[in-house]
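[Solved] Which block belongs to which protein?

Original post:
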Amino acid sequence: MILFYVIFGIFLILALRGLYPSDTKETVMYSEFVNDIKSNKINRMVVYEDGKITYTLTTDTQQRAIETYVAPQMISTDKFQNLLDELSNNGVKVKFEPSGSSMFLVNILGTIIPLAIIIFIWFFAMRSFSGRNSQAFSFTKSPAKKYLSNDQKVTFKDVAGVDEAKEELEITVKYLKNPDLFKGTGARMPKGVLLVGKPGTGKTLLARAVAGEADVPFYFISGSDFVELFVGVGAARVRDLFNHAKQSAPAIIFIDELDAVGRQRGAGLGGGHDEREQTLNQILVEMDGFDPKTDVIIMAATNRPDILDHALLRPGRFDKKVVVDPPDVKGREEILKIHMRGKPIDPDVDVKLLARRTPGFVGADLENLVNEAAILAAKKEARLITLHDFEEAIDRVIAGPAKRSRIMNPKEKRIIAYHELGHAIVGLSLPNANPVHKVTVIPRGTSTLGYTESLPTEDKYIVSKSELMDNLSQMLGGRAAEELVFDEITTGAANDLDRASDIARRMICQLGMSKKLGPISWGREENEVFLGKELTRMRNYSEEIASEIDNEVKQVIMDTYDKAKEILEKHKEKLDEAADRLIDQETITGKELATIIGLEEEGNYYREDEFEEDTEQAEETDEKNEKETKDESKSKVVSENDQSKDKEDDENGEIKKA
C-alpha cells in the first residue's frame, strides 16, 4: 500500500510539471529579430495568432528558443510578408499555430484527464482496501460482530445433550441478570469461562445461549481475527474490543478458537516480538486489569486446552473451565428432537433407535444427519421423512453415498460377501463384541466395498481386556473368512489389520495388558506444542524389551485370529447359505443372519425388544433421580423457611420482652 502512494505522488508531480513547464526562453527586440533574418541566422520559426514569434538560431548548438512579439495585425502586412518570403528563400521552415492561450487550455486538458483517471483508480483501491473494516486505514478497529438481544435469539432450550455444561453456565446467566445478588455476598464471578470440547459439540451455541438467556450484547470474534501483517494491530484490536464491551456492559465477549492466539509463548518459531505474542500479552492485561464493576464476562472455546498459555488459565483470567463432552444416547435423542422441529417426520421414526445408531456423533453430526435425511426425502418428492431416509443418511455420513453403479465381477463380490460375513458371524458368536445390526455389500464412498455395522448396547467409558480381545477377533474375522473359504488372502483386510495392530500395541505398551511384561507403560508420548499434535513416542526401554513387545503384540493378534477362524470353521456349513443370501439381497440384518446360522437365541445381535426394556428402565431411573432431587430441594426450602420462621419468632419474643 505504501508503494501505491509513492507511485501516485510521482505521477502527480510529473503531471504538475507538465502543466507548468519551466520558462527557459530568451526574449529579444523586434529589430534584433529582423537582423537575424537578414543575417540568415534563423534555423526554424513558429508564428502564433496573438503575435508571439519563437525561433531558434543556426549558430546555437543547444537550439534554445528565442521569443519576440509583433502586433497581431502586422502579421498580415506586406512588410512582414516580405520577411517571410526572405526566410522561405533561405530554406527556413515557418509554422503558424493558434494563440498561446489555446495551447495552455490543451495542456490543462491533457494533464487533468490522466490525473482524474489516477484519482478514480485510487478511490476504488481505497474502497477495496477498507472494505473489511468499513473505513480506510481502520487496521486497529476490532472486527468482532455484535449481536443484540433482539437479534436471532438462542436460549438453553435450543441446546441439548450437555446438561452439565448448561448447569455450570446458568450461574453465569444469573450473574449477568442480577450481579447485585453475588456482590451482596462478596462473591466474585469468574472473569473468564473457557469451553473445552471436541469440534461440533456445541461450544459456540452454548455461548450464544448464555447471551440469549442473559439478554445482553454478545461480541463474537475468532482468535485468528486479531493477528494481521502489521505489528501491533492485534493488540490494538484487543483494546478496541474490550473498550466497546465496557461501553455496552453488561456484555459477553466470545473468542472462538482461542488456541489460534493463546498458544503457549516461547514455543515454535518467532521471537519475543512475535505479533501473536503481543496480542496474547494484551489479552492477558485486559483480562487481569478489568474493572470489576464493568460486568463483562469473557468466554472462549478451544479443542486444544493443553497448548494454551498457562497465564491464560490461572485464577483471575480463564479460571472457570466447562467441559463440553460428546452427548450420550439420551443426549443424542434430545439433540435429534431439537433438529427435527418443524420438519415433517413420519410418526414411525424411532428417535431412540437413531440415537443408539449414532455413537460418537456430536451435535454438528446429528444436525447434518437430519438435514441429509430431509434432502433424501425431498429427492424422492415424499411428504414425510421416514425411518428409511434416516437409515440411509446414517450410512451416507459413516461410509459415504452408495455406489450402485460401480460394477464388480461376481468373484470379487463373493469375496467381499464372505469377508463381511466373517466380521458379522464372529461378532454374533462373541458375547463381549458390539451387537451386529446389519451386513451389506453395497459399495460406498471412495474405498468402502461393504461393511458390517455393530451397535453398542450403551455408552462406554472404560473397556475391559476381554472386550478388546473380542473386538480384535471381530476385526480379523474378514481375513479369516477369506483364508478359510478361498484358501487365499486379499488386500481387502488392510484397514482391519492396521486397526487391529494399533489396538494390540496399545494394549501392550500403554495399557499394561501383558502378563509377561507386567502392568507397565512402555514409552512416552512427546507432544510438540507449536504444531499442537503428537509427533513421536519416546522410547525409554531396551532392545530386549522392544523385542518382547513385538512378540507380545504378535501373540495377541495370532490368538484373536485363531479364535476367529475357530468360530468360522464351526459355522462353515451355514456360511455359504448366508453368502448367497447376502449377494442376492445386498443387505441383511443381524437377526436374519443369526437365524441362518442358528444363533437366533444366543446370538449377539441387535434386539429391539431388549433395547426398549433397557431404555424404559433408564428412563424410570432418571425420573426417580429427578424426583428425589426435587424432593430434596423442596425439603431444603421447607427447612430453611422453618428456620427463618423460628428466628423471626425469637426476635418477636425478644421485642415483646423489651
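(Second protein starts here: sequence line, then its C-alpha cells.)
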Amino acid sequence: MSQQQVSDRNRMKRISLEHVYKAYQKNHYVVKDLSLEIFEGEFLVLVGPSGCGKTTTLRMIAGLEELTHGDLSVDGVKFNDKDPALRDLSFVFQNYALLPHMTVETNIAFGLLHYRLSRIEVKKRVEEVAKKLSLYDKLGHYPAQLSGGQRQRVALARALVDEEKMILFDEPLSNLDALLRESMRKELISLYKNMHVTCLYVTHDQLEAMALATRMVMMKDGLVMQVGTPKQMYDEPHHLEVAKFIGSLETNVFYGDVKDHAFYVNHEMILLNEAMHQLLNTTYDQPMYLSIRPNQITLSKKHKEGFIEGIIEYIEYLGEHYLLHLNALNQKVSVLTEEDVKDLDKVYIKLGGICHLFDKNQIRVYKDLVDTVIISKEPSHEKDLQVIKEIKNYGYKVVYDHHNPDIIYEDSNRSCVFKNRFKHIKKEHLKDLIPELLDIRFKRH
C-alpha cells in the first residue's frame, strides 16, 4: 500500500449524495431524490419504518447496490461505479456475518488479509480491539460458543480492526435483548468518541437513533422527511410523520378545522395556549392537524372550564407514571400523568401544553412565519447571494428547505412555484415580492 493510500485511509470521510434514486422495478422507486451530506466525524443515523429506504441507502453507499440515478461522492471523488472493496469503509451487518468454522481471532483478522500486513501487526491490532470490546479471553472460541451480544461485538471488532475512517452499521443491535442493546449502545458511543471515525447507522428504533446520533435523517416511503439533531427532530418536527415517529410515546394527532382563529375538532372548539392562538391568527381557514404529546396534556379528575371529557379505556402502569388511553372527541387520546386514576371511569383533559399545527399536506405551520422567508436551496451563485443579502437587509430571516426543492408554496387558492433558487427574482422587484414570499407555508430547518 502506497503512502498516498495510507494517507487517504487515515482521513475521515465526507460523503455526498445528490438527487439519488433507486428502483428495483421500472418506475417503482424505493429511494426518491435523496440529497444528503454526511460530514466528517459525525454519527449520522438513518431512521424510519420498515421499507422507508434507509438500508437501501446504506447499501448504495457501501457499493452493494447500484444507483439508478444521481451521484455519490466521497471527499469530492465520484464513487458511483467504485468497487466496494476499494471504498475504504467497514460494514457491520445485522446478522453478524461471522464465519462459523473460524475462531474469534481469525474472524476479527479476516478483513486484514488483503492489506499484506505482517503477522505481528495483525496480532497486535486484533488484540488491541479485542481488549477494547472485552473479547480478549474469547479469541480462541468459535461463534457457536458465544452469546448474541458477544457475536455482535466480534462483528464490530472486525470493522474496527481495519482502522477505516468510515463505518456503516446496518441495524447491528436489532437481534439483541433490551439490556444488551442498552449496553452495546453505551459501548458504541464510547468507541465513537475515542476513535475519530465517521459513522452511518441504520435503525428502525427511534429511541436508539436519538441515543446515538449527532444528527438524524428520518425517511418514509423513500423520501427524506427531516434532517436534524435528535433535539430538533423531537422539539421541531417539520412534518406530521416526524412528530408521530420520533419520541418514546406516540404523539396525539387531532384533525380539525381552523375557523375564526380557533381550532375545532368534531365541531367542538379546542382552547390552545397563547402561542397557538397567535399562530391561528396568521393562517387561512382550512383543515389542519394538531399534534400534542401525552406529557403535554393537562389532566383533571373534575370538570373545569376549557377541559374536555375523556372516557378511560385502559391504563398502563409505567412505574413513576400512568399512561391513560382515552376516548375523547370521538378519537383515541393518550395522556401521561403521575395521578392514580384507576378507580375512575372518566377524566377531563386540556390541550394546553406544547403543541404543533400541520397543514392539510401534513407540513408544519410556524408561529414566526410572518418574518421569515423560506427558500428551497442554499444559494451558491453570486446573483442568489445578492438576493439573499437584500432580503436580510429588509430585516427578514432566511431559512433553507431541502425537502421539496421544486415547490415552495402551494394551496388550493393560489400557487407560487420556484425552481431550486431565487435567481429569477429581479432586484427592483424584490421589495414588492417579499410580502408574497411571507405567505409561504412550509417546514423549515
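Accepted answer:
You had them paired correctly. Confirming on the second one: Confidence is low (pLDDT under 50) at residues 1-7, 367-377, 399-445.
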